[in-house]
Design goal:
alpha/beta; D-Maltodextrin-Binding Protein, domain 2; 2 domains; ten-stranded mixed beta sheet; 11 helices; about 45% helix; about 20% strand; signal; Bug_dom1; BUG
């Protein structure tokens, strides 16, 4: 019996290795759980352009937007574990367990972790007609206009929603949150003056700040950014919100049960892509920081996500904002 079990195990390993040797034999789909044109979509398309060279096969993008990223994540969790359906998702992987009562997957159990990609700082921006021209003036304006402030976000569970929640809870100033169906329409209304403020990723705000279409007040990182368009902005920490440090990270995930040799090949291709000069240049221009530490490894990636679940859960529960 033992010999039969050992033989079966050896056969499985040999089969998996042979499968990985030929992989990929058809296009790999990166499922992006947000709309095309948004920050996460930009990261996915840049990574796919670079990673396909290292992987040796075509990578296509499929946008499955809705329910704060959980529709796309659910699709991948239930997909065939063959390495051809991969999820590229952001911090929603860690926040959805607290936001959604009836989540259709378990973040730490239903996926194979491939590696972290980058960390994207956030910027606090305002409509162009806002009277405040710097953070000190903004803080005064916020205190003078309590009960009348509108804070836009790209929808429940979005990066802008999370950053806004933390900003409000840290300041202890209530604002009316205005959810949109994506970053695009939220930014359009902010530029048009229909809402007052938004906290969003540099991948989406840098161009608008450069063009003078919005007012920029601060960045959410512990240190100032080196990006030319943003290096003049103070951090919220140095502006008085001690300990305020929010970055929106992106990672790659496969359905649970994907063969390890395939995961190893995907991880190796990811690591190669993260060192590509053109990819690094694209990310730097958007204020994103490519991950170079152990979180590019599957086990450390998973530990990081677990820590993020523990970080965001109390913030979301305190705000009392849930969805079915």
């Amino acid at each position: 019996m033992k010999r039969l079990l050992m033989a079966a195990a050896v056969a499985a390993l040999t089969s998996g290795a042979a499968y990985a040797q030929d992989y990929p034999t058809k296009p790999v789909t990166f499922v992006v759980p947000f709309a095309a044109g948004g920050p996460t979509d930009k990261v996915a398309r840049d990574l796919a352009d670079t990673m396909r060279k290292a992987l040796g096969g075509q990578i296509i993008i499929e946008n499955v937007a809705g329910a704060g990223g959980t529709l796309g994540a659910t699709k991948v969790a239930k997909a065939a574990p063959d390495g051809y359906t991969i999820l590229l998702a952001h911090v929603a992987m860690a926040t959805s367990p607290a936001l959604y009562r009836n989540l259709q997957y378990k973040t730490l159990e239903d996926f194979e972790y491939i590696g972290l990609i980058n960390e994207v700082p956030m910027t606090l921006i305002g409509r162009p007609t806002l009277p405040a021209n710097n953070y000190a003036e903004l803080l005064k304006w916020l205190n003078d206009n309590k009960g009348k402030i509108n804070l836009a976000n790209a929808g429940l569970g979005s990066a802008s929603h999370l950053c806004g929640l933390l900003f409000m809870s840290t300041l202890k100033i209530d604002m009316t949150t205005v959810p949109y169906k994506g970053t695009g329409p939220a930014m359009t209304d902010l530029i048009g003056g229909q809402v007052d403020l938004m906290c969003d990723q540099t991948t989406n705000t840098t161009t608008q700040i450069e063009g003078g279409k919005v007012k920029a007040y601060a960045v959410t990182t512990a240190k100032r950014l080196a990006t030319p368009a943003l290096k003049h902005l103070p951090t919220l920490d140095e502006s008085g919100l001690k300990g305020f440090n929010v970055t929106i990270w992106h990672g790659l995930y496969a359905p649970k049960g994907t063969p390890k040799p395939v995961l190893d090949k995907l991880n190796a291709a990811l690591k190669t892509a993260l060192k590509d000069p053109e990819f690094l240049k694209r990310q730097e221009s958007l204020g994103a920081v490519v991950v170079t530490d152990n979180r590019v490894n599957p086990a450390d990636h998973k530990k990081f996500v677990e820590a993020e679940i523990n970080k965001w859960g109390p913030v979301i529960k305190a705000a009392g904002q849930y969805a079915d």
